[in-house]
Amino acid sequence: MEETGQPEGKSWARLKLSEPLEFTRVYIERPAFNEKSISLKGTVSNGKFTNDSLKRKLNAPIEDGQYWATFPIKQNRYIFAQRDQKPEPTANEILLYGKVINGKFSSYIFEEETGLSDGRYWLIIEPDTELVSYLKSRHLPIDKQPNELLVEGVVDDLGKFTADNDPDFSFNTTQSTGKYFVRFEVSQLIDFLPQENEKPTLKKGEKLLEAYTWVNKETGEIKIDIQKNREDQRHHALDAIVVALSELTYLNQLSRYSGQLKEWERGKEDRPTFEQPWPLFDQTVNTAIQQILVSYAQNKKVVSRISKMISKNGRSFKSVGFAARGRLHREFYFGRHPYPILHQKNPQTGELLFEKDKDGNLQYYYHIRKSVVNLKNNKHVDKIVDEGIKNLIRERLEKEFNINTKNTYNIPADFFYDKDKKPALFLPNKKGQPVPIKKVRLRETISNAEQLKEDVNQWVNPYNNHHVVIYETAEGNLQEQIVSLWEAVERVNQGQAVYQLPSNGKRILTTLQENDMFLVDLPEDLKSILEDSVISFADFSPYLYRVQKISSMDYSFRHHLVSSVSDEQGEKRIASFKAWISLNPVKVIVDQIGNLKVK
User: What is the Cα–Cα distance from 562 to 49, expressed in whole angstroms?
Assistant: First the structure.
């Protein structure tokens, strides 16, 4: 390929071509009919030949590809065709259906003279699978010179060749109908055109939609078909009404349209038209869709009652218990330790001094052992508990890899093990012998760690936040309480309420749990009608959000119509009580038929 100077990506190259230099059929025609043999088209893969007419695979010690397989016929027999009576051939036989006209039987792959009367017959053939011969059914692309182009296409009944990859490239020819490789000489490279234009840069609040344009031949109108937007949850409602009103005739028209898509795109045929199910159909459907308020399923159960049969000592017992409806903690276990103040001791007792919080309580950290290969950057190195190992790593990074450890850095892939997979870092043991460093203890900060057993220093990091309580203190201030699923399960097991007012609270303002529905930043004129017992107005749709994620003073809301959760579309985040007061979220319930009620 020559250097084009074009940017990377798919492009159309506009070429000036010579007259066709050579035509070669893509597919090799079926071997001529022979009453003593039958030819089947099939595929050879991994030394096995398969064909739909054969019930078993045949050994074929040839290269993979598509072939004509010709079998000598050992014997055959005819059965007069009767309604609802189809013969069942054996694994070594081939079943054909055809007509006898003037004593000659014909099917789509076999013909022979018979002494039978005219009519429809089943023909059962027993082929000789030991004396099969194979012939490639498709030619390989023909060789071409560096300045030549090979085009694959079809010659139709009118003698016109049309390229597969460019329907606008066609010309008349004397070749018979079929699929061909055509060789041309490239006389000139005119220019390049991109196959796809770059997406325009969007401004805040703008949306980008992809659409097709076409011309209605009857009216001359230019139509725009916008591609379906699956980021809007209401597309499920649109699917439902389309399926409900579908008929077999519509599907047949669409199937024909799909089969002749190239002709439609070239403007040779118009698109299929369908009568509206009722007058003003599109307007009434659009009005109904605009009224939709999407409700989201919630798992309100904290624990579930379970029962199962168990066997012990040859006897069966029914075991009954409760299981948490979610993951209680992450898969790692931690040890809790106070954090010593480096190089400082109590002057009276000589004991180590430990860090304390502002209230004078010991500051605890949680240690976990991990392989050194999990250390990827300076943040991981800073967490290492053993100062000797930490300094050893930094020293090796600076001396052998010329990395400034006072700045941010990534650890090279070959840092801990050399090319022979041998450890590169060692510490002396009690006898002074070098011991390879394969694991290190890392220090983590966990604000809500839970102890698994009272007599074992084994702690876990609760995995899920079950809900957040927003409450007012006695002084009139807003505060939050994060409740993990672990704590919610403990409350249920102890017969307590799942949602509780904290000890310093005056009253609960609201609670947030995944998929709770809120009206966020609602205008004053709509607030006045919130006291209605049931609300079902599209006016509330722009302000209806569901709770997507919750963590300490970071609440993520997603618009109820938006299905995507991977970008900022339809997202509102509250990270302070000032923002909470400004947006004033109001908790509501959306039932299964779209009615909205204030909770």
Answer: 51
Q: Which of 31, 235, 46 is nearest to 133 (CA)?
A: 31
The average pLDDT across 366-395 equals: 91
Average pLDDT of the segment spanning 57-61? 89
- Domain residue spans of the chain: 11-25+140-194, 37-136, 211-290, 335-444, 465-598
* Residue 147: both structure tokens together: 């300045």
What whole-number distance in Å separates Cα of residue 452 and Cα of residue 75?
79
Neighbours of 325 (CB within 10 A): 16
Structure tokens given for 428: 């002396």
Condensed to tens digits (0 to 9), the pLDDT of residues 501-559 reads 999 999 999 999 999 999 999 888 787 777 654 555 678 889 999 999 998 899 999 99
Count the residues in the chain.
Answer: 599
Counting Cα atoms < 13 Å in the Cβ hemisphere of 398 gives 10
- pLDDT for residue 1: 45
What are the Cα distances from residue 309, in Å, to 303, 313, 314, 315, 316? Answer: 20, 13, 12, 10, 7
* Backbone CA torsion sign across 455, 458, 464, 468: positive
**Burial class (CB within 10 angstroms; exposed 0-12, middle 13-18, buried 19+) of 558:** buried
CA distance 512 to 469: 7
